[in-house]
Amino acid sequence: MIHYKFTTTFLLILAGISLKAQYTGNNYVVIQANSTPEQVVEIAAGVTPSQRQLNWQEMEMTAFIHFTVNTYYNQEWGQGTEDPKKFNPTEFDARQWVQTCREAGLKCIIMTAKHHDGFCLWPSKYTDHSIAASPWRDGKGDLVKDVSDECRRQGLKFGVYLSPWDRHEKSYGTDGYNEHFRNQLTELLTNYGRIDEVWFDGACGEGPNGKKQVYDWESYYKVIRRLQPQAVIAIMGPDVRWVGTESGYGRETEWSVVPFETSDQGMIAASSQQKAETEGFRPPGDMTDFDLGSREKIAKAKTLIWYPSEVDVSIRPGWFWHESENDRVKTPEKLLDIYFSSVGRNSLLLLNIPPDTRGLIHENDIKSLHVWRKAIDDIFSKNLADGAEIRVLKGGNPNAVKNLLDKNNASHWTTEGQPEAVLEFDLPKSQTFDVLMLSENIRVGQRIEKFRLSAFIGGEWKNITEGTTVGYKRLLRFPVITTSKVRLEILASRLNPAIAEFGLYKLIPEVKAIPSAAAFTDSTSVTLISDDKNADIFYTLDGTEPGKTSTPYRHPILLKESTTIRFIGFSPDGRQNFERKSYYYKTKYAITFTNAPDSRYDGGGPLGLIDGVRGSLDHADGKWSGFNGTDMVVTIDMDKVQHIKTIAAGFLQSTKSWIFPPSKIDFEISADGVNFKQVGSVILEQPNNDVESVLKAATEVNAEARFVRVKATNHGLLPDWHPGHGEPAWLFCDEIVIE
Ligand code: FUL
């Protein structure tokens, strides 16, 4: 059995190095070559965050602000040749930026002081390609100053994104650039008060002279540690790791302790803890692997570091603002899903909110953020496990169980040394919930490898949900249950688990339309219901946003024309549903599926594929029908024999979301719905790197028929280059168009 305290094994492994120096605030441990896998696991369980990493993690959510001359060129990556005169945010209001972020619960703002194009948002002495050459405030403005000052005024932390890649700077690609970069870094870290995060991205392209730069990372780190020792250095730096995607979704199994390659093992071993944090640190390689820190991954590690994950994602498709994306702002529901899949998966969420050409955060983004924040507050304001009596059924140590409900993640309950535990919670009354929250006291390390929640329902214990890692915070959703007794089992742990908090919560109520979509010939009737029976539901039929002043729902709605119903419910306790939209389509066509689409991606209902509504690049926009690992086979009955000129189908490829185009699409027609004839077949090229686009497959027909069948063959298992390799690919279709 593995024991709690680092005694003999640990001392032996670190022979020659002071135990105290390595263990206190130990976020960096060198493993000796002869260590057994068990010893490595035990050491991993004792690696802990540095104070700056802990402060960073506790913020949970922070904001990214992408704003520069790119915003005025409607582009994502500038060339370095942009005219500073175009930069003119006439309505810029730092208060609005900071207030928007603060109200959304984002605790720090990281702004793009310089993006790859080299334009500086502060009047840097070291370049003329800056805000000083812009018409904004006659070249006397300083955006970094305004935003950092305003952050302090409103109680937010402040961080900078300084792109090492600079497509404008002439010295880029020479030794001189490293000095130029340190000079700019020094300006930012001396003139704007306290900085809590410095964000370096990994892009290293060519500069104006066609050369790439060899970055002197270590010298950059030294500047930061000297001038702003509390700041974490993220992504291409030693303190914070990129989760590996920009989708907003972290790994289900997320270890904050990972093996690390360093440039000089010997030097690190000899260094003090402080030094070891940056010296010898080599900027990370591939961080996209499905598994970074499992027992298998750490078994042969030479060094283990506390290197927690940050999930960066934009509220819009692009990092910068584009007018054309004003209606593609992520919905509050999508943002909530991202919250559960980032903060709820032992990561910090870095959410990008790009201001527009006025210099303001757009109304649509603000609205989505407000509703999202309200949903988080509605869900997490009340821990339904509060007041529970907790019994230790396995693990011993009946003391300190109150720490599990004390809302303080620095205190914990742990076993008497065992890696397994069972805790039973007797709730003060029967409760209805669908969310589990767990957190470990990461001050002593991340240890839990497998856990399960079960509930006493109808006289027996039922498994409700289970997971692997916990770390700083783990959130799991499950179908709603009602009970007064639950058990938490820690099934595996690297060392005795130190559980800081336990919580049970109820998601906001759902409001639904029945049917959720339909095709009809003459008329159809739609019922709206909320899973909170006492909720008031309001709706509109004219496409406008529903609210408390819209038509109250009293009885089924009779539709005689193609209509979109928008509806929302409000519970008496102030909780609010997410607004929903349902489409009803008047047609004579009918459609049948051989394999039904996944219920999460049902294209808005059975007629989603022929309702004339096209999908966007957002696979969760409700317009896509998704098939996980299966083919799509659909037959459309057009009511009578008609002349068909062409048949086309739209497919999504979005590899980061595991969505691949079908490998083959067969088009068939039939007069009787029994005997089909193939009229076309399309082969689609399969991606071999990350891509995101909508594809169309079409065939000429020029024949008479009543039935059309489209068979799309799923890509199959994800290929070797993909992080999810070996798992089934998704196939997404938005529309079949028959002309
Ligand atoms: C990337 C950059 O290339 C993007 O433009 C954006 O800044 C993102 C956060 O990092 O590497």
CATH architecture of the largest domain: Alpha-Beta Barrel
Q: Tally the structural domains.
A: 4
Q: What ranges have pLDDT less than 50 throughout 5 or more consecutive residues?
A: 1-25, 263-276
Number of helices: 14
Strand order of the largest sheet: 6-5-4-3-2-11-10-7
Proportion of helical residues: 10-25%
What is the CATH topology assignment of the largest domain? TIM Barrel
| CATH homologous superfamily identity of the largest domain | Glycosidases
Radius of gyration computed on alpha carbons: 28 Å
Compute the average pLDDT.
91
Question: What is the total tally of β strands?
Answer: 33
Distance between the termini: 70 Å
Percent of residues in β-strands: 25-35%
Largest sheet: 8 strands, parallel
Shape: globular
Structural class: alpha+beta
CATH class annotation of the largest domain: Alpha Beta
Bound small molecules, deduplicated? beta-L-fucopyranose
Can you offer a commentary on this structure?
With 739 residues, the protein is α+β, with helices and mostly antiparallel strands. It folds into 4 domains: 8-22 and 383-505, Sandwich (Jelly Rolls), CATH 2.60.120; 66-239, TIM Barrel; 508-586, Immunoglobulin-like; 587-739, Galactose-binding domain-like (Jelly Rolls). It is 17% helix and 32% strand. It has an 8-stranded parallel beta sheet with strand order 6-5-4-3-2-11-10-7. Strands 12, 13, 14, 15, 16, 17 and 18 form a 7-stranded antiparallel beta sheet that branches. Helix 6 packs across helix 7 (143-153), helix 8 packs parallel to helix 9 (217-227) and helix 13 packs across helix 14 (363-380). The radius of gyration is 28 Å and the shape is globular. It binds beta-L-fucopyranose. Beta-L-fucopyranose is lined by residues 76, 201, 203, 312, 319.
